[in-house]
Amino acid sequence: xxxxxxxxxxxxxxxxxxxxxxxxxxxxxxxxxxxxxxxxxxxxxxxxxxxxxxxxxxxxxxxxxxxxxxxxxxxxxxxxxxxxxxxxxxxxxxxxxxxxxxxxxxxxxxxxxxxxxxxxxxxxxxxxxxxxxxxxxxxxxxxxxxxxxxxxxxxxxxxxxxxxxxxxxxxxxxxxxxxxxxxxxxxxxxxxxxxxxxxxxxxxxxxxxxxxxx
Amino acid sequence: xxxxxxxxxxxxxxxxxxxxxxxxxxxxxxxxxxxxxxxxxxxxxxxxxxxxxxxxxxxxxxxxxxxxxxxxxxxxxxxxxxxxxxxxxxxxxxxxxxxxxxxxxxxxxxxxxxxxxxxxxxxxxxxxxxxxxxxxxxxxxxxxxxxxxxxxxxxxxxxxxxxxxxxxxxxxxxxxxxxxxxxxxxxxxxxxxxxxxxxxxxxxxxxxxxxxxxxxxxxxxxxxxxxxxxxxxxxxxxxxxxxxxxxxxxxxxxxxxxxxxxxxxxxxxxxxxxxxxxxxxxxxxxxxxxxxxxxxxxxxxxxxxxxxxxxxxxxxxxxxxxxxxxxxxxxxxxxxxxxxxxxxxxxxxxxxxxxxxxxxxxxxxxxxxxxxxxxxxxxxxxxxxxxxxxxxxxxxxxxxxxxxxxxxxxxxxxxxxxxxxxxxxxxxxxxxxxxxxxxxxxxxxxxxxxxxxxxxxxxxxxxxxxxxxxxxxxxxxxxxxxxxxxxxxxxxxxxxxxxxxxxxxxxxxxxxxxxxxxxxxxxxxxxxxxxxxxxxxxxxxxxxxxxxxxxxxxxxxxxxxxxxxxxxxxxxxxxxxxxxxxxxxxx
Lengths: 214, 587
Hints:
The complex is a heterodimer of chains A (about 210) and B (about 575). With about 210 residues, chain A is an alpha+beta fold. Chain A has helices spanning about 45-60, 70, 75-80, 110-120, 130-140, 145-160, 170-175; strands at about 5-10, 20, 25-30, 35-40. The model of chain B has no long low-confidence stretch (mean pLDDT about 95).
């Protein structure tokens, strides 16, 4: 059995956020607590800090609004890699394995978990670098699959339903004005032309069944 | 192997066509009908809480599990095919209802001349105008013959829309280019969201003829002739790639299952993976004896039946014939054989991405809501000097945009794809971005076909289906033409920045296009040139019928489902009114 790892983060970054623990029970984090210890399911703490730092360069927290840090993107990615997606549960994984032209899609054997482990092994100390240096390193990684996964997963972690561990407090949805799952826009769909219509976001209920746990 | 007691009818596949045939035979005859579905059971209640973009739209929760079964792909004969390892350019369904559960619901009739595409094109432009390796032929059924079945299918699903051609009388506001219709749509058009009104106005200003999308999400509550009632659409935005949480969208579970459940002579067996059609034997050459399948426990089961209906979508319809030795496999070198011939995939793309100044509120909408123009479909415009044949439809869709799939588009002046500048621009443009969709006709070519892969196997050890498919100059030029038109419309809509589609190179298995993949068991008037006759009855085994897009000899630009449903209803009538009275070849 793997040793338990925790990501320790400052409560002020996601003060009051809902964070989903191992058994998918939501716990509201009190802002008074100085730090949070979030149990990790795939990453160890070193890896989680690197992923968090990289996601924060891809989707930074700045003048234009909160980013990957506040949304808890690293927690989302940790949960996804621990689940069926991380294990390629629904990919065709029979051989022979051959290289092909890019338009035949990814033909590699490595699962998302393996791609992350390999990619992260080359980023040791990344989280302690200056932002400009971090950007330089990420720029060099751009052509590689690991980076494109990291970028895609950062967007997913920003905008997924909070039941998946990202988009804490629906912070991503608030950024783009997405109201989440709503029963009906029947009376609004042909109104508000050219004017922002922003219903208060809602998310799926706690305990909602998801693919993450299979 | 376990052999079960014989039934009258076995249907392979529990999607639109299989369940429609089950409903027709179950309610109109006393025959015992068994539907074998490879996936799990489904009911409307499953969708009450499915509004989760990650699980459904991104991770494809409802689609075929590629770990069990996929297809291999190559662009041309000389190449080695590799498996498509993850869902990409098409999204086959699985489970009860099949892809009919998670479709968008745009539901239109094919243009009348599509059914006679070879004759009409040769007549107008001369046979020499056809590309060298073209493989098109007439369908063996005409629009006029199909019209009553189109009407029945529309009534069944409560289609929303506005007629543009009532018995030859053109009606403003509808699609004036459509084939004649005997009746108005069952329900009025769905509401038109903001982005689609911009498309409507832009298209009109250029002299085109916009009309509201024909939608399988009715605009108002509707009760169909089977007595099935459904509510009107609420435009919640969780539509394509989802099941409808309120049962408004026409899906096999919402319009067919409630009727099937009334009839005790129909049963549906789920997790039944059909591997062979059994045929021949001492007494019965020229007849299918039933099918063998693997059940949920892994046991091999033989289900004998008097009538076998293949309704397992394009890929498995074709693969089951090839695996079972029914018909002669197509050989592109000699042109002999028909099974696997005329593989087509509709030319489908976002022709232009548009960036606006004002917010669009584009989270509201339904899979089918929007506005179309058909001015450049089929042969409605003169192709002389254009360098391509046929055409397609343009849509200004409002299908309800989710942020995971759509965040990050920025106009070309923004070069960054991540980081602060990108984030700022992407946040600004997120709800100011729209796309004009183009769907074009895909003609059949001699070199585009399906056969069995020599190397790769499915979970049960059977060879995967191999696709050999690539675009030709006809499609590339058509897309170039369509992209120019879309850019003009986009500018007329008031877009500040436009990003045109970069052009069609080789077929790309990664870019989602549509799930409109057709051919392989095509229909026709001669056994030399087709697998099934115009009643979708196998030329070789007269008690085998094959339903679905696999019977399309080529791929019209309109969406295939309504034509598939109409052809299925026509076959159901032929079975009930003719075949059951005298089980023999119908053509």
